[in-house]
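This section describes the prediction task in plain terms. A model, or a person checking by hand, is given the sequence of a single protein chain and must write out its three-dimensional structure as a string of tokens. No templates, partner chains or ligands are provided. The sample shown here is typical of the held-out split.
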Amino acid sequence: MLGDKEIDVELQRLKQELLFPDQFTESKMCKESMQQASNSLRHSTQSLQKLCSDLRIMRQKSVNKANASHNQAQKALIEQNMAAVFQHSVDKAVHIRLAEAMKARVEQVEATLATLNQHTQVLENLLEIISRY
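The expected answer:
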């Protein structure tokens, strides 16, 4: 049950809507625009989460390839195949650098995701407040 204060606030809002209908049309458009922005932010968040997941998978593959190259270089060393040792060592170095670069990108994407989630939450809180009126 609404108290006297809530009823007064609602009556004031209705009065304003009747006296100044254009303001409420603009308000509705603003609310719809904010809703679209919220949906867009949510979609962007999902895309970034997918990107982050893909980067983690690619990073793990590079780590696995670096380990495999290390093992192959060890075998080649035992066989005294210096050309293979060199090639596998280069492969290992390349995959380690790729893994490090992807790790840095994952950290950047995660930081961006955190910021984006905060902004989305703020926008959704504003929308919730606006929808009460």
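For orientation: The chain has three helices and no strands.
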